[in-house]
């Protein structure tokens, strides 16, 4: 009875003159690729019973060699000429072989001449996301030149950034990674597997060319405060410009931001002067023999130390104070 009831609920039939129409609910449609039409489905190999998905997978992978590698598949081995090798299903149409094996396989030249699909940038890993691109890596020779210019020749990081077209943050990262690499070499932490992995990844990704791919050194990062809209009521005759908007968002002027980005960094020409001028009076006490910890003393104001001992902090009480920020969001101020 239960099986009969389920069958009657899931299938309903209507009889007409000489015809019987059945309606099946919850019918599922298999997700066949867009190129798997009747004339493009490859035949089964070696007389085996295979589904359409298994045949398409065998067509994509290709044959194996005695090692078990798909030697004819162009994605089987990593690139060694600093070029990307991303899967392009629109242009490949399920054929990723270097050489066609049968009449159902298409060579790379035929795929290029077919004109199907749209042209994709070589640095675009995802076909449907045209805003995502692979970043370019700095060559080992350029890294050595940057390290020599800053550490040996004592060139400020601002001049090095203009010379190679790289941002100061990236130059500081190169110096920091070089310092870590030298530390690992002294400790013997760089093994053979790590070297092989580094060399393989280095050959897979494209290299940075200062003449073609120079970075925008005047680019200002978008502040997080400007991602949300704010509404302000002002008089019609009251002037309101970009400076007033920056004050409303509590943002510093663009000139100050650019100066801070260009002068920042451990190896900049302004680093030593800023370090001396921003001395806050803190010091570290001398450590005696047998002590495990070093104590750092910093002058602070009484109101900024924290909560006093014994003060009750209940955030669920009814008489808690409520305040609103410039955007109109409610928050609970500290008492």
Oligomer: single chain
Shape: extended
Order of helices and strands: HEEHHHHHHHHHHEEEE
Unreliable spans are 1-11, 107-117
Our measurement of the CA-to-CA distance between the termini, rounded to an integer number of angstroms, reads 70 Å
User: How much beta, percentage-wise?
Assistant: 5-15%
| Overall helicity | 25-40%
Q: Structural class, from secondary structure content?
A: mainly alpha
Q: Main sheet, how many strands, which sense, barrel?
A: 2 strands, antiparallel
The total of beta strands comes to 6
Total helical elements:
11
If you compute it from the alpha carbons, what radius of gyration comes out, rounded to the nearest whole angstrom? Answer: 33 Å
> Average pLDDT value?
76
**Strand order in the largest sheet:** 1-2
Fold and architecture overview:
The protein is mainly alpha-helical and 335 residues long. Among the domains are: 49-100 and 121-134, no CATH class; 140-204, no CATH class; 224-268, no CATH class. The chain contains eleven helices and six strands. The strands form three sheets. The protein has a two-stranded antiparallel ribbon with strand order 1-2. Strand 1 (11-16) and strand 2 (19-24) form a beta hairpin. It is extended and about 90 Å long. Mean pLDDT is 76; it is low at 1-11 and 107-117.
């Amino acid at each position: 009875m239960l099986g009969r009831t389920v069958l009657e609920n899931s299938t309903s039939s209507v009889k007409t003159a000489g015809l019987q129409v059945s309606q099946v609910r919850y019918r599922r449609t298999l997700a066949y690729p867009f190129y798997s039409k009747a004339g493009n489905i490859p035949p089964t190999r070696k007389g085996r019973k295979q589904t359409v998905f298994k045949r398409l997978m065998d067509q994509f992978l290709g044959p194996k060699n005695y090692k078990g590698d798909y030697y004819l598949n162009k994605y089987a081995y990593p690139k060694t000429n600093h070029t990307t090798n991303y899967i392009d299903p629109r242009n490949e149409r399920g054929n990723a072989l270097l050489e066609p094996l049968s009449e159902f396989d298409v060579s790379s030249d035929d795929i290029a001449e077919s004109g199907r699909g749209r042209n994709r940038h070589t640095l675009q890993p995802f076909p449907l996301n045209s805003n995502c691109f692979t970043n370019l890596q700095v060559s080992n020779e350029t890294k050595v030149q940057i390290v020599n210019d800053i550490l040996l020749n004592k060139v400020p990081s601002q001049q090095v950034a203009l010379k190679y077209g790289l941002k100061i943050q990236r130059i500081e990262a190169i110096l920091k990674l070089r310092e870590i690499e030298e530390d690992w070499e002294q400790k013997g932490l760089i093994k053979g597997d790590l070297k092989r992995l580094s060399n393989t990844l280095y050959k897979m990704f494209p290299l940075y060319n200062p003449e073609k791919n120079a970075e925008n050194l005047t680019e200002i990062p978008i502040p997080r405060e400007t991602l949300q809209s704010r509404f302000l009521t002002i008089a019609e005759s009251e002037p309101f410009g970009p400076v007033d908007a920056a004050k409303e968002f509590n943002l510093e002027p663009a000139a100050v931001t650019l100066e801070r980005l260009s002068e920042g960094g451990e190896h900049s020409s302004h680093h030593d002067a800023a370090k001396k001028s921003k001395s806050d009076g803190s010091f570290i006490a001398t450590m005696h023999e047998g002590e495990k910890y070093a104590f750092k003393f910093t002058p602070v104001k009484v109101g900024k130390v924290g909560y006093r001992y014994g003060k009750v902090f209940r955030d669920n009480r009814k008489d808690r104070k409520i305040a609103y920020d410039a955007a109109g969001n409610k928050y609970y101020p500290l008492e």
